Automatic annotation (TrEMBL):
Name of the molecule in the record: Cytochrome P450
Organism domain of life: Eukaryota
One Gene Ontology term from the biological process aspect of the record: isoquinoline alkaloid biosynthetic process
Keyword tags: Membrane, Transmembrane, Transmembrane helix
Lineage of source species: Eukaryota, Viridiplantae, Streptophyta, Embryophyta, Tracheophyta
Membrane-spanning residues: 12-30
Cell inner membrane keyword on record: no
InterPro entries according to UniProt: Cyt_P450, Cyt_P450_E_grp-I, Cyt_P450_sf
Molecular function terms, GO-annotated: heme binding; iron ion binding; monooxygenase activity; oxidoreductase activity, acting on paired donors, with incorporation or reduction of molecular oxygen
Keyword Transmembrane helix among record annotations: yes
């Protein structure tokens, strides 16, 4: 019995010793890799464990970055939680990165809120660099943002400006929020360029007011500092409620975009069946019309889905 107990104790001791040796070896290996990795990085301010330099950041980032580059040189590193940032402090370095190594640095690091509003990176802003992004970006430039397309929408822009001027003239001697009026002009122009032929004037006004409120809150949330973006381990807890609120906004936008796409598809189908008897077909194609006609035009190299289309509207 004693021999059996001694064997069990010896086994425990050997296992404990083995675990300790493995843990120490793993720690030494990780530390060596970190030292080797850090030796290739530019200099930067020391940070705290886990949170890095987050507690020391100045809210006025441009001044903080200028101070860093003055102290550590034109290129320096900054650790924000688990995120490693490289700060470039000279136009020459920025030109090298953006021109010579543009493809290397083309991918984005979307925030929690951006992933939700962009349908997992299916939009133009946060999509990873690849064939899909290149093809969609080329189509947007050619069909929507080219000189000929912008010239075609010049009449629309003039009409919106005239409408606003008439509205302002009717409000003589009353307080006017210029910022709000300018926002409405830009929103109306963008909505007309995106899906202008889908709704009548009354619907545009109603939808514009609702869309404006949601768009303002989306921009506000995207601009917030979210601790989950720097410490992904906390993302599942959603401490600041950013993920929850952004999902609520998307739950409003999603059915709106789907109904809009369905309505346009029905309109196009009716035009094909009955012809353009009422003059409903627009001479200037909007964003929605362009991308719905891609399969008909043989643009098969762009695998376009409803999700991609909704993400682009964002």
């Amino acid at each position: 019995m004693e021999a059996k107990n001694q064997n069990q104790e010896l086994t425990r001791a050997v296992l404990t010793f083995s675990v300790i040796v493995i843990a120490i070896s793993w720690y030494i290996w990780v530390r060596k890799k970190q030292v080797h990795w850090n030796s290739k990085l530019p200099p930067g301010p020391p940070g705290l464990p886990i949170v890095g330099n987050i507690p020391f950041i100045d809210p006025e980032l441009h001044k903080y970055f200028a101070k860093l580059t003055n102290q550590y040189g034109p290129i320096c590193k900054l650790k924000l939680g688990s995120k490693l940032l490289i700060v470039l402090g000279s136009p020459e370095l920025a030109a090298v990165v953006m021109k010579e190594f543009d493809v290397t640095f083309a991918n984005r690091d979307p925030t929690v809120a951006a992933k939700i509003i962009g349908y997992g990176g299916s939009d133009l802003v946060f999509a990873n660099y690849g064939p899909h992004l290149k093809n969609v970006r080329a189509l947007c430039v050619r069909e929507i943002l080219s000189k000929s397309a912008l010239d075609a929408f010049s009449t629309l822009r003039q009409q919106e400006v005239r409408k606003t001027l008439r509205s302002l003239y009717a409000k003589v001697n009353t307080p006017v929020n210029i910022r709000e009026e300018m926002f409405l002009i830009m929103l109306n122009v963008m909505m007309n360029m995106m899906w202008g032929g889908t709704f009548n004037d009354e619907d545009k006004i109603r939808i514009g007011l609702e869309f404006r409120k949601v768009a303002e809150e989306v921009l506000d949330i995207l601009g917030r500092t979210n601790i989950s973006d720097f410490l992904p381990v906390l993302a599942k807890f959603d401490l600041q409620g950013v993920e929850r609120r952004m999902k609520e906004l998307v739950s409003w936008l999603d059915p709106f975009f789907e109904s809009m796409i369905d309505k346009r598809m029905k309109m196009d189908h009716e035009l094909k069946l009955n012809g353009d008897q009422d003059g409903k077909e627009r001479k200037v194609k909007d964003f929605l019309q362009v991308f719905q006609q891609l399969p008909e035009q043989g643009e098969s190299k762009v695998p376009f889905t409803f999700t991609n289309l909704k993400a682009l509207f964002m």
